[in-house]
Amino acid sequence: MKILSTLITLGALGAGAYWANENHPEIKHKVFELLNTGSFHTLEVRHTGKQIMEQNRSQLLKTSRHKYKDATLKFSPYLLMEVKFTNNRNTTGEGIILWDMLDGEMVINTQDWEKTHGFGDCINANCDREEFKVINLLASKGGSLDRQGFINILKVENDLLDHWLEKCRKKRLIVQTGNQYRLHLQDPKLNVLPQTLIDDRLVTKPYKRPSASTAATVAPRSAAPLSGPLGKTLPSGAPSMSTYRS
User: Fold this and answer.
1) If one looks up domain 117-191 in CATH, what number appears?
2) Domains of the chain: which residue ranges?
3) How far apart are CA 177 and CA 185, in angstroms?
């Protein structure tokens, strides 16, 4: 009996959809429009592209004869994370992190869009837990430390320490000069509070999903699989983001 009622219901729905498609095609277009739209979170835009270009016209244009092309707003992905951490006073802190999904760095603040430098290198080198201990210790000591300093702080056997240091050296994350080791990064910035100071409001922006044919045409040359929606912009725009709790 249940199977019969299900078939009757499906038949009625199919007949109704056919009638609506034949007599009211605008309904079909409306449904497709609703299915192909969505929304993402982003930071509110402080200044439009036109305002920025007009304010910096003398620096951006060589002469009065030069003209701007039309400004476009581009979005790039950031991950929004709600985190807990242990601060320098050995108490628990809570905050929000904006993590750049393109260069692998954390945004320190959204006022001037300052970022860390070094986390992206660790991600690209597939650092494991032990290797990051070495990198993090060097960062906390100003970027360099001798062998005895590692032994005193990490409390590990010589053979194990040699293994960790050699792995970091092969990945070109550290360099050795005599008995001294230093980070192989220009102006590293790793020893920061794991928190982003956000000065802008989060807003919601609508978007339309591209069709299958369009998506195939504009697909990026290379892309890594990401979990969840993408989102965020460059400093002159308004970043969108996916959310993660830690």
Assistant:
1) 1.10.10.10
2) 2-35, 38-113+194-246, 117-191
3) 15
* CA within 13 Å, CB half, 92: 3
Rounded Cα distance between 210 and 213, Å, is 8
Residue with tokens 């305002």: 51
* Beta strands in 101-179, from DSSP E residues, in sequence order: 106-107, 144-146, 174-177
The pTM of this model reads: 0.62
- The string of pLDDT tens digits covering residues 181-201 is 999 988 899 988 889 988 777
Strand 180-183: give its sheet, edge to edge: 144-146, 180-183, 174-177
What's 172-187 look like in SS3? Answer: CCEEEECCEEEECCCC
Q: What pLDDT, in 10s, does the model give residues 104-129?
A: 999 999 888 899 999 999 999 999 99
- Give the list of residues 6+ apart from residue 245 with CB closer than 8 angstroms, or none: 81, 82
Is 202 within 8 Å of 208 (Cβ atoms)?
no
- Asked if 43 and 242 count as a contact pair (C-beta separation under 8 A), the reply is no
- What's the first-to-final CA gap in the chain, in angstroms? 49
| Residue 90 contacts residue 199 (beta carbons within 8 Å) | no
Strands 240-245 and 77-86: parallel
CA distance 133 to 173: 12
Structure tokens at 71: 């400004």
